[in-house]
Amino acid sequence: MDILLIAGLWLDGSAWNGVVPALEALGHRPVPVTLPGQGDGSASATLDDQVAAVLSAVDAASGRPMVVGHSAACTLAWLAADARPERVAKVALVGGFPAADGRPYADFFELEDGAMPFPGWAPFEGPDSADLGEEARRDFAAAAIPVPAGVAEGVVRLKDERRFDVPVLVVCPEFTPAQAREWIAAGDVPELAKAGHVDFADIDSGHWPMITQPAGLARLLAAATPEP
User: Fold this and answer.
1) Which residues form the AB hydrolase-1 domain (predicted)?
2) What's this model's pTM, rounded to 2 decimal places?
């Protein structure tokens, strides 16, 4: 199966370098998606540009792909299900949840010179980064790509309620499946509260399992692929 891989903020497709060969070994075709403004040098990219890149990858996929979003990009994966409910076989959400219609995409940190730079590790101390060593932290920060303001402040627009029929896997790294279920039941994740088919999977990692547990994440994703 084609498995589209969408990295979160500040990351490009190379974030999946450890996951790709492991998925290939398991018989799948992984496709890391290069997001405008996060890997192609376009500082003026918008959220619409990123959505268009994801949809282009969906349209180019063989058969019906599984779309994997990490962190903020969980919203991009969900937007793909909204725009192509008949084409997306499943959505996997790694360490995040989709934003609701009308909400900003990722206005989490202050902008500088028209972009949102990586804010350093202070906001991520604790379970998020506990499994990242000093070298991995330095490499991440050095490679981090500031997210264009047009992406970070873009407004999420969801239109097709058929998205709720697309099966969802919530991959739980720095939080547990029990916590995820509680947040959904409490109304904190309205999109998933309406989804008809939601499964949960735990992985023993921090917020970036593609870096710290690539083989384990690949096995988990491969096991979750729907039957062709």
Assistant:
1) 3-219
2) 0.96
